[in-house]
DNA sequence: CGGAATCCTGTATGATACTG
DNA sequence: CAGTATCATACAGGATTCCG
């Protein structure tokens, strides 16, 4: 395709930003990455400090080792998570947030809070909706 | 208080919240819904006022009519978006944010801002990562 | 215009097994 | 412990067609 710069420049707008609604906008790629089923959950967990692979796996109920592995690699690639290997006898791998990751974790917090505090309203809305469409 | 939801109670923790890391936690369902590729994009768009179906479709480059339709229905079901039909000659359908939806839009803003202002860092991290792994 | 129904395919995901 | 590799599949998602 194009080079990285060629992609960026035409999309940059006056305020130095990007159009999230443009197809190939990097910001949308970022958003899509964050839309990952586990990514934000992991980031939020790591806010509490470094964790090892299987610790994460135990904490996040329902994640497969494959999904966890993939998500961690993507997060590492995006510079959000740091991966450190310790040459202990059974090898130990520790994941932690980078500086960038920490800023993300903070930006995510309002959304997490929102989910937390509006679950009941959402569930109620769903029931209402289902009741109506079921009636038809 | 313990009536309707057998699902909710066992998951409620001391502070009256939910454990996002539990498999069947409603909060996680909410989060997963938000993790939808288009949901947040739509919510953000509707902050600017009501829009019709094809307006949304045009604004969000790359969304298929099916994906848009499905996402809108889900958002409506969750009580985040309001759908109003006008009996004009070619029927007009208008989508707008509900009160609940507006609170979500606000909670989302920090994350959108984050994506906006950290794209370059993420892209840089990706390049670095790819350069290294490619070297192997 | 705003969608629902159908078909069809890529990919994401999960279970299983193997390695360092 | 911390993964990768393989396979098998379910399902989201796109393209197309048709309808109120």
From TrEMBL, chains A, B:
Xref: Pfam families: HxlR
Residue ranges occupied by any HTH hxlR-type domain in the UniProt entry: 25-123
GO MF entries: DNA binding; DNA-binding transcription factor activity
Keyword DNA-binding (UniProt): yes
Record's keyword terms, sorted: DNA-binding, Transcription, Transcription regulation
CDD domains: HTH_ARSR
InterPro entries: ArsR-like_HTH (IPR011991), HTH_ArsR_DNA-bd_dom (IPR001845), HTH_HxlR (IPR002577), WH-like_DNA-bd_sf (IPR036388), WH_DNA-bd_sf (IPR036390)
Keyword DNA-binding appears in the UniProt entry: yes
Protein name in the entry: Transcriptional regulatory protein
Organism in which the protein naturally occurs: Azoarcus sp. (strain BH72)
The organism's taxonomic lineage, starting at the top: Bacteria, Pseudomonadati, Pseudomonadota, Betaproteobacteria, Rhodocyclales
